[in-house]
Write a structure and sequence with these properties.
The structure holds 2 protein chains of 2 kinds. Helices cover 70% and strands 1% of the residues of chain A. Chain A is globular and about 70 Å long. By secondary structure, chain A is mainly α. Chain A has a two-stranded antiparallel sheet with strand order 1-2. Chain B contains 10 helices and no strands. Classes of the chains: A mainly alpha, B mainly alpha.
Chain lengths: 294, 269
């Protein structure tokens, strides 16, 4: 801008009007399809229902039912277990891949090409990517054929498909990218002179990694963690498809209530889930300051 | 330049394994989708044929593949256009400080991290209570935008953060109006990024499932149709469908990357 007249801090700042006009479509869409739906869920979570309809009222039974049931607590525990195990794998794989891309690939062109190769599957169908594991993990799948061929086992292993194992495998397969991208981004911003300085000071590769690169990559790790944790906590499709109904998750519990048309019960469950996820995000942000990344 | 040690090759091998992990399953079902008519869901291949692709186009065999495919493409195109337009406008707005900017930024982030099933349930309930029938072009469109807009807006933020304002100032100093500066200077410079936003908008919508499931109404989108198939189809026709939609996605991605490359090249000249 050629000339910017800073108006005193009146409510109507110069330029605010144009900005507000430009963000109006964004505000309308997020208002109507994010805020109003969440408000609807909160309201309906206090409603009553019978087998055919919703009955507007103000009862807390949906919450006492949800929080008072052992099933809910077990399900949360099971979902948390998925989140923690998935996080451990995605963060270690994601960090290693990002480290390779950021520090070991020397030319910018190759860096971009290899990065794109990692990113492209994100733009293809998740469901198809889950189904793709069937020929590997099934009863007569490649893995079982290989294990039997090598005489490691004499009967097909049933747990490979439709188990917690396959659920976590699919999570790692789908969500590691959400770690790679933010960690890679943060690593690319690390001033290379810091690493040289550490080396000149006598630090070996491991010391550089633990004292320079990991601390400076923490914001990226935190952003990736927020993605992975929120995706796993709210998931229902991966758990249903990959566990064949053997495993439980909060999202699956909700989606079962939805298919039974118990909307207020599902809504109460949704509110509890949202609060849980927000607390987890809040805790992550307490540990790591990501503001510099935004 | 230091010598590349053992560590480098170990990391390169790890990266190679990761890429294999990413693409291996997709390649496997691509091969298996060419199973012979007697073949099953796993190896061995019993002959090679296009049987399962042909099967896909017999409408009664696997549900409404054609209709859901068409709906998904139309929906993805609408989402793409809206995502580009809304993200671009928001990106321009955020170049200045304005009251409420921080709050709006958090709203965008919230849209990204609120569990998808909440969006789906919330929109479904909202339409239910308002007695409006949900459909793929209304409720599902909105649901998709809550997923694509954060990506679009964040990409625009990154673009404008790196944008060199001196080009604009030069145009203005030469007497160009605001609109002229925008259309002749800013827009051409950010065009490749806009193609990127379009790619995200299209692809994320085309593959969206979790936010659509309760918001699509009676007519399924393609991912919903595929999901329905997983419960009752146990033949390689599922792989044929997977292969087709994956290759469609790849075609979209590659053409967008191509367009971006062409635009950037032309700018260099």
């Amino acid at each position: 801008m050629a000339i910017t007249a800073k108006a005193p801090s009146s409510f109507w700042r110069k330029g605010d009007g144009v900005s507000w006009l430009q963000v109006t479509p964004l505000v309308v869409v997020l208002g109507v399809f994010l805020l109003v739906p969440i408000a609807t869920i909160v309201i309906v979570s206090f409603w009553d229902y019978d087998s055919v309809r919703l009955i507007p009222s103000f009862i807390i039974d949906n919450y006492t039912d949800a929080l008072g049931s052992a099933v809910t607590w077990h399900t949360y525990l099971s979902t948390l277990k998925f989140a923690v195990i998935t996080w451990i794998f995605t963060v270690s794989i994601g960090f290693t891949v990002a480290y390779f891309l950021a520090f070991q690939v020397r030319t910018a062109l190759w860096q971009m090409v290899l990065f794109q190769i990692c990113a492209i599957p994100f733009l293809t169908s998740n469901i198809i990517r889950m189904i793709s594991w069937v020929p590997f993990l099934g009863r007569n799948g490649l893995l079982n054929q290989a294990l039997q061929g090598l005489h490691i086992t004499d009967h097909p292993l049933e747990f490979l498909l439709f188990s917690d194992f396959s659920v976590i495998l699919a999570f790692v397969h789908l969500y590691t990218l959400f770690m790679v991208v933010p960690i890679f981004n943060t690593m690319m911003r690390i001033d290379r002179r810091l690493i040289e300085a550490a080396r000149d000071g006598g630090a070996n590769a491991l010391a550089v990694l633990t004292n320079v690169i990991i601390p400076l990559s923490l914001p990226g790790i935190a952003i990736g963690t927020i993605f992975v944790v929120t995706l796993v906590m709210g998931d229902f499709i991966t758990v249903r498809l990959m566990s064949g109904g053997q495993s439980a998750s909060v999202g699956l519990l909700m989606s079962n209530e939805i298919s039974l048309l118990q909307y207020p019960a599902a809504a109460a469950q949704a509110v509890v889930l949202l609060i849980t996820v927000l607390i987890m995000v809040f805790l992550i942000l307490r540990v790591v300051d990501i503001r510099k990344e935004l | 330049m230091e010598r590349r040690g053992l560590g480098h090759y170990l990391l390169a091998a790890f990266f190679g394994l990761f890429v294999l992990f990413l693409y291996g399953p997709t390649i496997t079902i691509t091969i298996l989708s060419f199973q012979g008519p007697d073949g099953g869901l796993t190896f061995p291949m019993r002959g090679v044929s296009l049987h399962w692709f042909a099967n896909l186009f017999q409408a009664q065999a696997v549900g409404d593949f054609g209709g859901s495919f068409l709906r998904s493409i139309l929906l993805a195109l609408m989402v793409m256009l809206l995502t580009v337009l809304i993200s671009l406008l928001a990106g321009l707005a955020f170049r200045r400080r304005f009251r409420g900017a921080t709050l709006l930024f958090y709203l965008v982030i919230a849209s990204l991290i609120v569990p998808s099933i909440l969006i789906s349930l919330g929109i479904g309930l909202m339409f239910n209570i308002a007695s409006i029938d949900p459909s793929w072009y209304s409720s599902a469109l909105g649901a998709h935008l809550t997923w694509t807009l954060p990506f679009g807006v964040l990409i625009m933020f990154a673009v404008f953060n790196r944008f060199d304002r001196s080009y604009e100032e030069a145009a203005r100093d030469l007497g160009a109006s605001s609109w002229k500066t925008f259309s002749n200077v800013v827009l051409p410079l950010i065009a490749p990024s806009l193609v990127g936003v379009a790619l995200f908008g299209f692809s994320l919508s085309y593959d969206e499932f979790a936010r659509t499931i309760m918001a699509a109404g009676t007519d399924n989108t393609l991912p919903l149709e595929i999901y329905g198939m997983t419960t009752n189809v146990t033949s390689p026709v599922l792989y044929a469908l997977g292969t087709l939609t994956t290759f469609f996605s790849f075609a979209v991605i590659l053409s967008c990357l191509g367009i971006m490359l062409v635009i950037s090249r032309r700018r260099v000249r």
